[in-house]
Write a structure and sequence with these properties.
By secondary structure, this protein is an alpha+beta fold. It has one domain: Hypothetical Protein Pfu-838710-001, CATH 2.40.320.10. 27% of the residues lie in helices and 35% in strands. An eight-stranded antiparallel β-barrel has the order 2-7-6-5-4-8-9-11, surrounded by four helices.
Length: 263
């Protein structure tokens, strides 16, 4: 990412009142409705500037922007990816997520039901990222239709995240940037420095969200988006991906526009 863009983002972060990790768990919203937004990373500073009166910012170890690492699993024939591509009403994702600042690793299962509700289940992993031990095996057996030997790592994803919590704890926002997709062996790497993905997790009505209002005023509207599906599709051009082509073209254009300005 261009240094000036990152500086502009960091300059906005001290204007928020902070919230700690323990307090933010009250708004973890493990069962929620999600809305995602895709836009140029250069828009982050102006968006943040409009939100300081309405949201707290997560602070860990004096940091307000945090690095994340995610390792996704699927079957060898990409069954979960194909379920997403077919738009099935019930679908799951399995991932190890590493919160690098707090040095914690969770094995997570995200599922979306036929009512559009996202439910996230997770356990803290005692092993290193991607290591499935007996506790992880039991969790997978209880939360998914898959046994541990049926799934393999298929995608790694890194990014930085800013987390905001609405002051009444009715919604939580994540703003991701510095996105990178990698094959598990890291022989294929796709950097997307010009892209930002925001996610609004809420229990209430979308129209009541100040964040949604600010984005709409900036011409940014909700768009279905899955880092997992887009990453798999971009790293595997021969895999069926008609459902995601328009989104891939959009993010490529956003990233190209950004890189063109930087050169």
């Amino acid at each position: 990412m261009n240094t000036n863009t990152e500086i502009n983002i960091y300059e906005q972060l001290p204007h928020f009142k902070s919230i700690d990790l323990e307090s933010i768990e009250k708004a973890s919203l493990m069962r929620r409705r999600d809305s995602k937004y895709v836009y140029p990373v250069t828009r982050i500073p102006e968006i943040l500037a409009r939100l300081t009166d309405h949201y707290y910012i997560l602070e860990i170890e004096h940091l307000r922007s945090h690095p994340y690492n995610t390792l996704y699993y699927d079957t060898r024939d990409m069954e979960m990816y194909h379920m997403h591509h077919r738009g099935l009403s019930f679908r799951q994702k399995i991932r190890f997520r590493t919160y690098e600042v707090s040095d914690t690793v969770f094995l997570e299962v995200k599922e979306k039901n036929n009512k559009g509700i996202t439910v996230k289940k997770r356990i803290r992993s005692n092993g290193n990222k991607g290591i499935i031990l007996s506790k992880e095996e039991e969790f997978l057996a209880s939360a998914t239709p898959y046994q541990h030997h049926e799934i393999v790592p298929v995608l790694e994803n890194t990014f930085n995240r800013i987390t905001l919590v609405e002051k009444n704890q009715k919604e939580r926002i994540t703003i991701d940037y510095n996105l990178c997709f990698m094959s598990p062996d890291r022989k294929q790497i796709i950097d997307l420095p010009g892209l930002s993905i925001a996610e609004l997790k809420r229990e209430g009505n979308l129209s009541a969200s100040e964040f949604n209002t600010v984005l709409r005023q900036n011409g940014i509207y909700p768009m279905r988006f899955s880092k997992y599906c887009i990453g798999i599709a971009m790293l595997n051009p021969d895999i069926p991906q008609n459902r995601f082509k328009a989104k891939i073209l959009k993010i490529k254009k956003i990233n190209l526009d950004y890189e063109t300005v930087q050169t």
